[in-house]
Amino acid sequence: ATPTALLVGTGRGAQLGILIKGPEVLESTRRIDTVVLDKTGTVTSGQMSLARVVAAEGEDATEVLRLAGAVEDASEHPIAKAIAAGARAQAGALPEVADFANLEGLGVQGVVDGRAMLVGRAALLAEWSVELPAELADAKAAAESEGATAVAVAWDGRARAVLVVSDTVKPTSAEAVAQLRGLGLTPILLTGDNEAAARAVAAKVGIDEVIAEVLPADKVDVVSRLQGEGRVVAMVGDGVNDAAALVRADLGLAMGTGTDVAIEAGDLTLVRGDLRAAADAIRLSRRTLGTIK
Ligand code: ADP
Ligand code: MG
C-alpha cells in the first residue's frame, strides 16, 4: 500500500526517493536529536543466507537441516526463508509440518516426521529446558562474534544443530550513519537479535550505542524510554515488528523495501531502501522549513 503521498520540497523529495505523508511531519525534524535504526532489513540488506550447519555429536547435518527447513518453510521471516532455501538446496524436497506456530522474536515450532521441533534462539530452547552442548555453544559464539545469527534446532528435548545465517551490511549504511552524525544526531542500533551480532554490525557502520535482544512488542517501549529521557527520536525500520515504534517515534521513517505495515506506520517512506535517504530527508525538510519561515 502506498500512503497518500505528498512530495517534500517541490519535487526534490521525489527525486531523492522520499515520500512524506503530510507537511506537519516536517516540523518534528527540527528537534530530532536521536535516530534509532532497526538492524535487520534497515542497516543490513535483510537478504539472509544459510552460511553453515554445525551438527551436534552423532547428528546428521543434512537430516537436521531438512527437518528444520520444513518448519521454517511455514514462516515468512527472512531467517526462516534463508533456512528453508538452504535446506531445499542441500536436502531436496521438504516434508510437511503439522501444528506449526510462529513465536515472534524467538523462532518457530512444529511437528515434522513425528518429531516436535523447536527452531530458533537459544532462549526459545531454554524455555523448554533444552541446553546447547559445548560444541554447539561454541559454534553459536563464533557465529555471533562475526555478526551472524545462530539458530538452534532441537527435538525430543535435545539440541541437534546450530544453523548459521548471515546477512550483509548494506554498502551505503556506514556513509548514512556518518551523514546522520553530521546532522548532529546520535545513532542507536535496535534489534531483536543478540548483543554480539548487534555489536559486530554496529562496529561495521560506526554506531556506538546498541540496544539488543528486544522482543518485537518491546521496541515501542525503547522509543518511549528514550523520549522519557528527553530525547526527540526518529525511528527507521522496515518490519511488522517496527510498526508500533515507527508510530510512537517523533518521526517514523519506513524503508520502502519493507513491509506494508511499516510503510503505513511511518511518516516518511525511503522509497529505495537506501539509509542515506534518511539523512537526505531530515536535511531537506530542515531546509524546506528554513525557506517557509
Ligand atoms: P530484528 O529485530 O533484527 O528485525 P526479530 O525481532 O524478527 O529481528 O527476531 C529476533 C531474533 O529472533 C532473530 O535474530 C532470531 O534469532 C530469532 N528468530 C525470529 N524468528 C525466527 C525464525 N523464524 N527462525 C529462527 N529464528 C528466529
Ligand atoms: Mg527489521
Automatic annotation (TrEMBL):
Compartmental location: Cell membrane
This protein's UniProt keywords: ATP-binding, Cell membrane, Membrane, Metal-binding, Nucleotide-binding, Translocase, Transmembrane, Transmembrane helix
Major localization class: membrane
Protein family membership: Belongs to the cation transport ATPase (P-type) (TC 3.A.3) family. Type IB subfamily.
The protein, known as: Heavy metal translocating P-type ATPase
Biological source species: Saccharopolyspora taberi
Lineage: Bacteria, Bacillati, Actinomycetota, Actinomycetes, Pseudonocardiales
